[in-house]
Amino acid sequence: MSAENTTTTLAGELFAPGVGTQAGPPTTPAAGTGTAGEATPGAHSHGGPAPTGSPAERFTSTDPEAFGAPTGREEEWRFTPMRRIRPLLDGAPSDAHLQWDTDLPDGVELTSVEADDPLLKGLPEPVDRLAALTRARSGGAAVVRVPAEARLDRPVTLRLSGTGAEEVVWGQLVVEVGAFAEATVVLDHAGLARYSGGVAVLVGDGAQVTLVAAQEWARGSVHGGQFDAVVGRDATFRQVVVTLGGDLVRLVSNVQYAGPGGTAELFGVYFADETQHQEHRLWVDHAVPNCTSNVLYKGALQGEDAHTVWIGDVRIRPTATGTSTYELNRNLVLTDGARADSVPNLEIETGEIVGAGHASATGRFDDEQLFYLCSRGIDAETARRLVVRGFFADVVQHIGIPELQDRLMGSIEARLGGLPGLDDQPVEPA
Amino acid sequence: MTTPQNGSVLEIRDLHVTVGEGDDAKEILRGVDLTVRAGETHAIMGPNGSGKSTLAYSIAGHPKYTITGGTVTLDGEDVLAMTVDERARAGLFLAMQYPVEVPGVSVSNFLRTAATAVKGEAPKLRTWVKDVKAEMAGLEMDPAFAERNVNEGFSGGEKKRHEILQMRLLKPRIAILDETDSGLDVDALRVVSEGVNRTRAEGEVGVLLITHYTRILRYIKPDFVHVFVAGRVVEEGGPELAEKLENEGYAAYVKDSNEQASAEKAAAEVVPS
Question: Predicted ipTM?
Answer without folding.
Answer: 0.93
